[in-house]
């Protein structure tokens, strides 16, 4: 294996760097086939979260002022989904396909990023450790922007880290960094931080080219977003409203390791502790070897801003936010294993991969064949309300799911959200005509019902990796609801 010959971040069919080209090609194709097969086996049957529903609804009817999707609007993520939707895939399925493709492709930029730092062999090992971890596996086929944005960010870092003898790669990395931001704007501090660390070490002329390549796609994306949203004012209004709501929900977010997204994404707090120990061992080894300058774009430029974003502007307990953190630390972890096990490091990596697969595989295969509680419960509620010639009263947190369902095909019955009754805008519908659907613990309007059906997740790992919502829903038929009988107002079909 040739350690000095680093792979192309965009794709290299000689991923292993072997002198025997044919053997290298065969091994690379086999590895990609195994990763793809694994990803297809855990490709989910449906969406599970309201953000996924909002993204999918935006594929059909983009409206930045009505949370389709929510700020910061993820323009290129929606663009990718629209492209796939054009060839016949459903809106949510389109986004999940995009996520799956980038999840498989990530082996190339991730290996390319770590190769200059830890060598080609350990770089492949680091990529495998990341790819088989529960979190990256679980989110590989979800309609979230995180997997795709992480792959693009890693590709940008890979180009920047290998640009010493290839000045044009600086611009390539900048373009990829911009696309990562346009897919997931929350990555702006991460991409800018890494670019600054890289930029201060290069000549001014190259720095200007790097900056131009970075700014141009962002400006184009911003102009398109403004054009389709009728100007800046509606966008600003939507952003401030969403910001107030978002940050109000972060006040009580947990920040401990046991409750962290890192622990969830790795399957257990003990595994997270082990991952962090190995990370520090690998980092210290590189610093002692005089590689501080080489690793600083990842450590200081990318990882540090990412931690600030996760803990300062997000809920750190959500597992999906830890996925980019795992990618940006996997190389240090692989090197830490090498420090401990020496030549037996591949036995350790293989054992970790087998253990992760054994833990996650059976449960995520079930995840592939299980429709999530929210879509299943919504269909039940709509059918029941049509049978009763009545109305669905829905938990307000389900609005994105209902909006997506309406855009895909007519609801067939009126849908009223619970907050309208709580605020006294409308009276409760007659019990015999009411079907009430709500997330567990939120059915505060319910007095009694003729029948109640439960739609709950039965896969422990899926529940552990979720955001603790939309995994246990109830559909109450013939529901008597609390509310003011004196309220005046029509039943409102969502629109």
Give the number of domains: 2
Q: Helices and strands: which structural class?
A: alpha/beta
Contiguous uncertain segments of 5+ residues: none
Number of strands: 7
Major beta sheet, specifics?
5 strands, mixed
Helix content: 55-70%
Instruction: Tell me, rounded to a whole number, the average pLDDT.
Output: 93
How do you describe this structure in short?
The chain is α/β, with parallel strands linked by helices. The chain has helices at residues 21-41, 50-60, 75-85, 91-105, 107-118, 120-132, 134-138, 146-161, 168-183, 188-199, 204-228, 232-248, 261-266, 269-288, 292-313, 323-341, 345-368, 373-388, 399-408, 418-422, 460-465; strands at 391-394, 415-417, 434-439, 446-448, 451-456, 472-477, 480-481.
Structural description of this entry:
This protein is α/β, with parallel strands linked by helices and 495 residues long. The protein folds into two domains: 348 residues, no CATH class; 109 residues, no CATH class. The protein has 21 helices and seven strands. The strands form two sheets. A five-stranded mixed β-sheet has the order 2-1-3-6-5. Strands 4-7 form a two-stranded antiparallel sheet. It is globular.
């Amino acid at each position: 294996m040739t350690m000095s010959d680093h792979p192309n971040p965009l794709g290299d069919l000689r991923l292993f760097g072997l002198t025997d080209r044919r053997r290298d090609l065969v091994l690379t194709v086999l590895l990609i086939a195994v990763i793809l097969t694994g990803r297809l086996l855990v490709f989910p049957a449906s969406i599970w979260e309201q953000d996924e529903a909002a993204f999918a609804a935006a594929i059909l009817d983009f409206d930045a002022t009505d949370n389709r999707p929510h700020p910061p609007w993820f323009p290129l993520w929606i663009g990718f989904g629209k492209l796939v939707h054009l060839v016949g895939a459903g809106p949510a399925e389109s986004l999940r396909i995009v996520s799956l493709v980038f999840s498989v492709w990530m082996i190339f930029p991730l290996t390319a990023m770590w190769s200059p730092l830890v060598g080609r062999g350990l770089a492949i090992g680091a990529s495998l450790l990341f790819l088989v971890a529960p979190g990256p596996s679980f989110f590989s086929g979800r309609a979230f922007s995180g997997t795709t944005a992480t792959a693009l960010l890693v590709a940008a870092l890979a180009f920047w880290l290998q640009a010493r003898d290839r000045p044009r790669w600086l611009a390539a990395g900048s373009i990829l960094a911009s696309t990562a931001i346009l897919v997931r704007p929350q990555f702006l501090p991460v991409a800018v931080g890494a670019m600054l660390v890289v930029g201060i070490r290069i000549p001014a002329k190259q720095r200007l080219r790097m900056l131009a390549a970075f700014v141009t796609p962002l400006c184009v994306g911003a102009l398109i977003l403004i054009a389709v949203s009728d100007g800046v004012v509606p966008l600003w209004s939507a952003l401030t409203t969403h910001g107030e709501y978002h940050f109000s929900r972060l006040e009580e977010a947990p920040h401990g390791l046991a409750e962290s997204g890192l622990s969830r994404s790795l399957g257990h707090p003990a595994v997270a502790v082990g991952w962090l120990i190995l990370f520090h061992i690998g980092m210290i080894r590189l610093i002692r070897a005089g590689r501080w300058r080489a690793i600083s774009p990842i450590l200081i430029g990318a990882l540090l801003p990412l931690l600030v974003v996760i803990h300062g502007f997000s809920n750190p307990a959500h597992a999906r936010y830890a996925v980019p953190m795992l990618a940006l630390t996997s190389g240090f972890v692989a090197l830490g294993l090498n420090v401990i096990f020496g030549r037996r490091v591949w036995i350790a990596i293989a054992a970790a991969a087998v253990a992760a697969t054994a833990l996650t595989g059976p449960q995520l295969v079930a995840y592939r064949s299980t429709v999530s509680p929210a879509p299943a419960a919504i269909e039940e509620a709509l059918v029941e309300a049509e049978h009763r010639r009545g109305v669905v009263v829905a938990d307000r947190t389900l609005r994105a799911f209902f909006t997506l369902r309406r855009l895909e095909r007519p609801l067939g019955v009126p849908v009223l959200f619970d907050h309208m009754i709580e605020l006294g805008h409308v009276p409760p519908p007659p019990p015999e005509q009411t079907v009430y659907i709500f997330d567990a613990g939120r059915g505060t309007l319910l007095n009694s019902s003729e029948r109640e059906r439960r739609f709950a997740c039965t896969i422990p790992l899926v529940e552990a990796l979720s955001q603790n919502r939309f995994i246990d829903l109830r559909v109450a038929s013939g529901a008597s609801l609390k509310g003011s009988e004196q309220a005046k107002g029509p039943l409102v079909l969502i629109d």
